[in-house]
Amino acid sequence: MTARTVTRILAGAAGIALVAAAGQASFSASTSSSAPTYTVQPGDSLWEIANIDGLTVDQLAGANGLPSDAALQIGQVLTIPPASYVPGTASSTVLTSASSASSTQGASSSSAGAQPLVDAPTPAGSFCATMPAPAGSVPLPPLLAASPGRLALRPLFVEWANYYGVLPSLLEAIDWQESGWQEGVVSPDGAVGIGQIIPSTAQFVDQDLIGEQLDPAVAADNIRMSAAFLGFLNRLEQGNICKVIAAYYEGPLNLQTDGVFTVTKPYVEDVEAQIPEFQ
Question: Is the pTM of this model over 0.70?
Answer without folding.
Answer: no
